[in-house]
Write a structure and sequence with these properties.
Layout (H helix, E strand, L loop, with lengths): L16 E3 L7 H4 L1 E12 L2 E9 L5 H16 L7 H7 L6 E2 L5 H13 L9 H7 L11 H8 L7 E4 L4 E4 L12 H15 L5 E5 L2 E5 L10 E6 L8 E7 L2 E7 L4 E4 L2 E4 L14 E8 L2 H24 L5 E6 L3 E4 L8 E2 L6 E2 L7
Parallel strand pairs: 16-18
Antiparallel strand pairs: 1-9, 2-3, 3-7, 4-6, 5-6, 7-8, 8-11, 9-10, 10-17, 11-14, 12-13, 14-15, 15-16
Helix pairs in contact: 2-7, 4-8, 7-8
Length: 358
Amino acid sequence: MMKNKKSRIILIAVLFLVILTGCNTKTEKSKINKEPYSDQQSLLGTYVQVKIYDNGKEDVLEKAFDRVKELGDKITVNEKGSEIDEINEQAGIKPVKVSDDIYPLIKRAYEYSEDSSGGFDMAIGPITQLWHIGFDDARKPSQEEIDQALKLVDYHKVKLNDEDKTVYLEEKGMELDLGAIAKGYITDEVVKVLKDNGVTTAIVDLGGNVYVLGHSPRGKDMDWNVGIQDPNKARNTVVGTVQESNKTLVTSGIYERFLEVDGENYHHLFDPKTGYPFDNDIAGVTVITNESVDGDGLSTAVFSMGVKKGLEYAEGLKDVDVIFITKEDKVFVSKDIEKDFELGKDSGYTMGDRKDLK
């Protein structure tokens, strides 16, 4: 669950490296600068960075960050005025009316809960709060505690009223946790702010939710060259690259935040069925979509499925591509980007053979 705390949040692998080299664009003609207007702030428990290349659009940076803060205040728990806080506090008591900003986010979270058959569950809050991985009080709960919390994890008991825009959690103790989808939603909202203010070329990075707007300043109609973070190395070390424009890339991985107990690492991506972190062959997954909220929802959904089923599921969807990195240092990519993905020669990884997947 998103909390605007700075302590002990490991940010290593959620950030993508956007490689910008050889910028030869003539600013006079295109009004696209070689060097961007840029700002970076610590928000939403991560680093938020926006780069704008359009000449004369520096003032839009402030508007973009204002939108991040506005939405963060409404979504982040334990924040005065948080709408998600109020929903959780009124669980089992009464429905809560939410704003036009937040209701669409909750609707999307419900849809992904259904589409993934509960692999992504918006009501995972009791489990994530119990473990609290990424914070100073993180701990491994007892099995009894996990069993009790699991009784409250059921997105079917989240009742939405589209006409009144209300949200009701049927049982006391239930909690929404939108941390797995909220950054994507906010990313899309920031992109809207940029477009509404005439920005055509930009990068938005919300701690692993990256959106590349327009074409790269490297040349006319050139795609951005986007690096995919190595899940086992320091930030800005890449496994490979893909070329994209007007797309968002979202990553999830076991390296992002974790708790070590008795020599065993427990990551922060939880299985709503067991109350423990997902246990499969995935070290990291990157999802490429048109909207970042979709990338967020799908990254958790396909992570829950493992590589083989995750690939099959993603390839059945329109405008969705995935890149899986396994614990065995193999890389698998969906069919549509097999020709576009370039594995780094010195990455230490090899392309996997689908025939080996179980």
